[in-house]
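Quick one - inputs below.
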Amino acid sequence: MNKTLPDHLGHFGIYGGRYVPETLFAALEDLDRAYRLIRKEKKFQEELKYYLTHYAGRPTPVYEAKNLTEHFGRARIFLKREDLCHTGAHKINNAIAQGLLAKRLGKKRIVAETGAGQHGVASATIASVLRLQCVVYMGAEDIERQSLNVYKMKLLGAEVRPVNSGSKTLKDATNEAIRDWVTNVETTHYLIGSVVGPHPYPVMVRNFQSVIGIEARQYFQKSLKHLPDYLLACVGGGSNAIGFFHPFLKDRKVQMVGVEASGEGIHTLHHAAAMTMGSPGILHGMKSYLLQDKNGQVQLAHSISAGLDYPSVGPEHSHLKDTGRVRYETATDKEALEGFRMLTEMEGIMPALEPSHAIGFLPRLMPKTQKGQRVLICLSGRGDKDIETIRKHFL
Amino acid sequence: MKNRLLQKIRDVQKEKGKLFCAFITLGYPDLKSTEQLILEFEKLGVDIIELGIPFSDPLADGPTIQFSSEFALRQGVSLLDAFHLVSNLRLRGCKIPILCFSYLNPIYHFGIKAFPQKARQSGFDGLIIPDLPPEEEKNLQKECRRHEISQVFLVAPTTRPERASQIARSSSGFVYYVSLRGVTGARQVSASNLSREFNKVQKVIKQPLLIGFGISSPEQGRALSRLAQGVIVGSAIIDAIRSSNHQIAPAILFVEKMLRAVKERTRAVSSRN
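Output:
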């Protein structure tokens, strides 16, 4: 399955596609063509590999969390350490690749949207090393929540433009980045940070992030002579999860669980569980599960983690949900905080609040596992950026 | 009943006239004003109304229409109000062609099958969806044809000629030509900057082309309507309401001026010939 997905217009089943203003259509076609050409080019692959290895610090290790394993007394728990990447999260994998692609397209300027600021920092970083001009759109509310990352982006030479429209968060920053792109499409590459948006972004970003799953799969095959029984990852837009899952999709015995953020609870108005509580809709150039009201207006998402605070999700996840290949569950703000505490206290690793949702789901997953099985979690980023939020909850 | 849009375009073309299309946001500043604006515009001789359905994430729109959309949404305005308002207008004898201008999601949510039928029943004549290229949602096109709703597609300066003619084949009534790279909003778009790209597209399209995005002054309206078969004005109308503390009278005055400029008979040779 999935080897032919998406189709040439970017459809994953009924999801995906290209729902954009006509002005952008030519740019998307150019991007798609350039990407398909470039990915077969040895020179591009070598350049990308060089940056991933010597700049971002890949491959990232797989670490066996023995204390956590002992705590639950069931399957062995492993962590894929994306938190050890340069800039502190998996976001750099995609930023490097798209930065190189932008250069090849002859674009001198990149725009990016950011929620938690991780993708903004990754974009600003890559813009600095590749000598590109960089503008990052960020919701005014997120700018306040993530002041450390805002400062970092500025140090790196990026311009951070606050977005005051709508809910002043990631969704609105994305609208504004698209508006910028529509206006400056000839000089500018839009560096989307997740597996969302119009085709070819979802498939392109997935392929750039697949390095996570490819490395993890190789490690398990070579060193442990056995694939994991469970993969566990958090899902906002879903780039770490799809990059992690995708290389295992054909391994029928590997069960996969994506964890959405249920904020204050799925039965409140304050959550970001697009697949669990939403219905198919169109936002940001794609069809996917979407949180919306009875009139088809997009509803605000809420999560303690700005990176999961998004009302939709990558279209391939929606498809994987409908086919049942991946199971999607949720974890609340409280469960995520508990996940953060567990990993910090037991393993000396401070996870970002996004993957803390995956860790926070362990108390519900582990009792169903057996001794001798293996659970692999994608630890997509480190927690430094969230210390202020966490300080408010733990004294 | 006949499709009023197609009829209107035939009539105006027969007289070799120009088409003037006015965009307003449903429920800005309130539903009553929307109704009044449409009736007044019809009296003035506006040819087509584009009724904008407010959406939470209008990514093709600039600050002005973002503002009017947010304003209307705060009052709880929805697609259902549009059906209600248009059918009321029709009952009162209003005959101006009305197009529904909406982002795809509210329509998708209402139902791809259900929408065209309901729109037709309410008295709409057409549909424009700025975030829907003709490649997607073919079923909607089928249903629109079935219920005689003219689905109008957009062509941009970045659209390549082969694609432009494909888009035109899917488009019913006219083709909406986006005048510039960027979002909606009053700006300095000029006929001289536009004409090269526009003429390339004009050559491959049989239907009338109406130019929209960035038209804010009668001079622009006059120049652009000579280039094309007509113009679409939106943000400048909303701006006139917004800058007068939500009074609609200045907007009506403004449209009257624009209309005069666009409809002015001149001996200038139409670029069509």
